Amino acid sequence: MIPADPGADRQAVAARDTPDPEVRAAGLATPLSEVVSREPLLVPPATTVADVAMAMREGHHSCAVVTSEPVGIVTNGDLARVLAERRPSDIPVRHVMTSPVHVLPAAAPLIRGLLLMLDEGIEHVPVVRGDRVVRVVTDVDVMRQQSASPLLVADRIRRAGSGGLHDSALPDVSTDLAGAAASLLAVGVDGLRIAAVVASLRDALTVRMLQLAERELGPPHCPYAWLALGSQGRMEQLLHSDQDTALAYAEPTAQAGEYFAALAERVTNGLAAAGVPRCPGGFMATAWCRPLDEWRRTFLGWLDEPDAQRLLDAQVFLDLRPVAGGLDVGVLDRALARGRNRPGIQLALAQTARRFAPRAGRLGRVRTDRLAPADVKLRGTVPIVMLGRLYGLAAGSPERTTAGRLRAAAAADLISADAADTLLDAYAVLLSNRLATELGGRTGDRASAQAMILSARQGRELLAALRAVRTALQASALTYPDPG
C-alpha cells in the first residue's frame, strides 16, 4: 500500500504544470517521472544489510526501496549508522529502513518534490505510478534541474566558511536566497510558503555561523539556546527581514556571560555580513543575552506589570523558537502561556492590532490607489501577525506560525474556520506582493516594483486581502472592545 500523497494539502504546493517558458526553463514544472531515467533499486524486506550495501555500491545508488508493506527506504546514511552502532551486517534491512515514506505521483511537477524535501528534511522521494515505485528523485537530481534550488543554497551554506566567519563565500548567501525565492515565486508558490523556505535557510545559516563561532571560541561553558524571534521565530521571513534573535544560557556565571556575549557578537556580525540586516530596534542576541532564569523573571515581569513598551517587547518574544543549542527553554513557554489568563493583555494586543487597520475612503472602502509598498506590511501583514498572536495566546496554543495559531483559534471556537482560512489566504497574497516588491527593488527600479504590486490581477487580489484584514480587525472588536 502506498501512503497518501502528503502534497495534496492546499498549502503544501501552489505550483502548477504550466506552459510558461520561464517556468519550464527553471525546471520546476518538469514531471518527476522525467527528472530521472534510471530504475530504482528494489529489495525485499528480508534482504540483509550487507547485501543491500553491496547492491547499492555496485549500482551506484544512494538508496534502496524496500518492497515491504508499506514501502520503506534505506539510504547511505542508514547504512553508516548501522556501521557506527556496530550492529551485525546480516540483519534484515527491514530493521533499519524508514517506513512509511513520503511518496509523490509520477505526474507531479518537480516543485512538489523540492518542497517535500524542504518540509520533511529528506533527500530521497520515491515516485509512484499506481501502487508501484518507478523512480526515486534525490536532492542531487533537484539541484541538477534548477541552479537556484533552495536545496543548493542549503548545501552552499553547510559548506560555507571553511576559512572562518570572515570567509568570502558567506556574503553571497543573500543573492542565493533571492534567486531561490524568485524561482519559487515564478512557478506560483505563494508568499507564505516561500517565507517558510527563506526562514529554514536562515536557520541553516545561523547554525553554520554558530558552528564557526564555536570553532573560534572553543566549546560553550554550559548548555545554551539560540532563539529566533519575530518573523524568524514564526518561520515567515522575507528577503529584507532583519535579525530578531536572543540567547539564553544555563549558568549565571561571569565566565558564561563573557563567552556567550562573544558568541552573540560573532554570529550577529556574521549574519550581517551574509546579508541579514541588523534589527533597528535592537532585538538581537548582542543585547538580549542572559541566563535562563533571568529570562523567566523578565517574561513574568512583562505579564505581571504590563505597560506599552513591555507589551511591545513581549509580542516579539511570543514568537520565540529555539534554533540551535541543547538548552531546554520550556520554562519560557510556560511563563508566556500565563498571558492566556490575563484578559487585559489580550485586550491590549487586540487594540494594538486595530491601530494598523487598512485605511478606508469616504464610504468605508479600503483604498489601494495610494498604497505605498511599506503599507502592505504595516496595514496588511502586521495586523494579521498580531491577530495570530492574540488568538493563539487566547487559545493557549504552543503554535508559533500564524497559520498554526489561527487554526488553533478556530479549533477552540474563538473564530470560525472560514475566517481563519480567509485571513490566511490574505496573508499569503500580501506576502507574495511584498516578496515581488523586494525582488523588483533589487534592481533599484522601485517604480517597477510598485507597478508589480498594482498590476490588474494583483491589484484585485491585494484589495480583497486588505478587505479581509479590515473585516477581521472589526470582528476582533466584538470580543475585545475598545474602552468607553
Secondary structure blueprint with pairings:
Blueprint: H1 21-26, H2 32-35, E1 42-43, H3 49-59, E2 63-66, E3 72-75, H4 76-84, E4 104-105, H5 110-120, E5 124-129, E6 132-138, H6 139-145, H7 150-159, H8 173-186, H9 191-217, E7 224-228, H10 230-233, E8 245-249, H11 254-273, E9 289-291, H12 292-304, H13 308-317, E10 321-324, H14 330-337, H15 343-354, H16 373-395, H17 402-411, H18 417-441, H19 446-453, H20 456-479
Parallel strand pairs: 1-2, 4-5, 8-9
Antiparallel strand pairs: 2-3, 5-6, 7-8, 7-10
Structure characteristics:
three-stranded mixed sheet; alpha/beta; CBS_dom; 20 helices; disordered N terminus; DUF294_put_nucleoTrafse_sb-bd; DUF294 nucleotidyltransferase-like domain-containing protein; four-stranded mixed sheet; CBS_dom_sf; 3 domains; 484 residues; CBS-domain; globular; Beta Polymerase, domain 2
Which CATH-level-2 architecture of the largest domain?
A: 2-Layer Sandwich
Main-sheet strand order equals 9-8-7-10
- Report mean pLDDT, rounded to a whole number: 85
Shape descriptor: globular
- How many angstroms does the end-to-end distance come to? 62 Å
Describe what this molecule looks like in 3D:
The protein is α/β, with parallel strands linked by helices. It has three domains: 6-136, Roll (CBS-domain); 150-298, Beta Polymerase, domain 2 (2-Layer Sandwich); 342-479. 53% of the residues lie in helices and 9% in strands. It has 20 helices and ten strands. The protein has helices at residues 21-26, 32-35, 49-59, 76-84, 110-120, 139-145, 150-159, 173-186, 191-217, 230-233, 254-273, 292-304, 308-317, 330-337, 343-354, 373-395, 402-411, 417-441, 446-453, 456-479, and strands spanning 42-43, 63-66, 72-75, 104-105, 124-129, 132-138, 224-228, 245-249, 289-291, 321-324. The strands form three sheets. The protein has a four-stranded mixed β-sheet. Helix 11 (254-273) links the parallel strand 8 (245-249) and strand 9. The longest helix has 27 residues, at 191-217. It starts with 20 loop residues before the first helix and ends in a 5-residue tail after the last helix. The relative contact order is 0.08. Mean pLDDT is 85; it is low at 1-26 and 443-453. This is DUF294 nucleotidyltransferase-like domain-containing protein. It comes from Pseudonocardia aurantiaca. Residues 1-21 are annotated as: Disordered. Residues 36-89, 97-153 form the CBS domain. Keywords: CBS domain.
